[in-house]
Amino acid sequence: MKKILALFAFVSAVLGTGAFASEAGVKLDHAPINVGDMASLQSGARSFVNYCLNCHSASMQRYNRLRDIGLTDEQIKDNLLFTADKVGEMMTSGMTRKDGKEWFGAAPPDLSVVARSRGADWLYTYLRGFYRDSSTTTGWNNVVFDRVAMPHVLWQLQGERVRKEESLKDAEGKEIEDGHGGVRKVVKFETVAPGSMSGSEYDVMVRDLVNYLVWMGEPNQVLRKQVGFWVLFVLGIMIALVGLLKSAFWKDVH
Ligand code: HEC
Fold first, then answer.
1. What's the DSSP call for residue 196?
2. Would you say the CB of residue 136 lies under 6 angstroms from ligand 1?
3. From 59, 78, 122, 176, which residue has the greatest number of CB atoms within 10 Å?
4. CA 70, CA 75: separation in Å to the nearest integer?
5. pLDDT band, residue 11 (cuts 50/70/90)
6. 217 CA to centre of ligand 1 in angstroms
7. Which of the four pLDDT bands, split at 50, 70 and 90, describes residue 5?
8. Considering the chain, what is the average pLDDT of its residues?
């Protein structure tokens, strides 16, 4: 019994760690994605190629795989093929690992399966979580990735935000103590320079980008879900037929 309990505790500890994917204990925003939404995937693919492939690669992904999200070879060639000559080539980056390390202090990792390691909610929070911080090398910091070496590449869209800590006040305007000799603080983000997009437009843009990253992490998932649906559908019909057959057979027995 003791052994079983220990095993149970171990398994729940291992499973539990997945839920705490953010570093500083920040609450992650839920990413409202749908990998069956082709328009969203196409828009995400466009953003990915335009804003991310300069530094990152997606070396497990061929450009022509984008046919699966409803694009033709012509569309891929004319609009998305920036780092290769043929649609059959991999989504590589123009930057080498060595350059990346030299320029940013950390090499931009390959993003082929980043959605599987980080999860959609983390990515959604990360890409919306940059703020100005003059103490870092890039001048940017991030709510879920403290002192990240990546600059905020989408800042022209989102605008510039700063992080502000304000002390929490009670109804009479007095500061509330935190029980450790200090006062309780709330963290706020303030837009100091607006971007070209509104807040909700930016959220949609990032949602599509994360949707694309999730799809790219497992391109077969759309097909797998469709196949799963039809398998269940056909099984359902078979069960109904077998039921009818059974009553036909037993009709004369009674
Ligand atoms: C200017 C170069 C550059 C561009 C452009 C860029 N990144 Fe990055 N990115 C980096 C660097 C450098 C790191 C490594 C940060 C570190 O380890 O501190 C990084 C890290 C990341 C990570 C964290 C990976 C992990 O699991 O640790 C994600 C996710 C990411 N980038 C996504 C993106 C997306 C999505 C885009 C396009 C919108 C993008 N990046 C554009 C340079 C870039």
1. S
2. no
3. 122
4. 10
5. low
6. 16
7. low
8. 87
Whose tokens are 């911080």? That residue is: 133
- Count of Cβ atoms closer than 10 Å to residue 62 Cβ: 17
For the record, the structure tokens of 225 come out as 């879900």
Element (H, E) at 61: strand 58-62
Asked if residue 42 has pLDDT above 90, the reply is yes
Span 235-241, average pLDDT: 96
- Where is 39: in which H helix or E strand? helix 38-51
| Pocket lining: 106 vs ligand 1, CB cutoff 6 Å | yes
- Residue 109 C-alpha to ligand 1 middle, in angstroms? 7
Q: How many CB atoms lie within 10 A of CB 40?
A: 21
What are the domain boundaries of the chain?
A: 19-164+195-246
This prediction has a pTM of 0.80
Residue 51 reports pLDDT greater than 90 = yes
Q: Which residue among 99, 104, 150 is best mutated to probe the pocket of ligand 1, counting the most ligand atoms within 8 A of its Cβ?
A: 150
Token readout for 192 is 């100091």
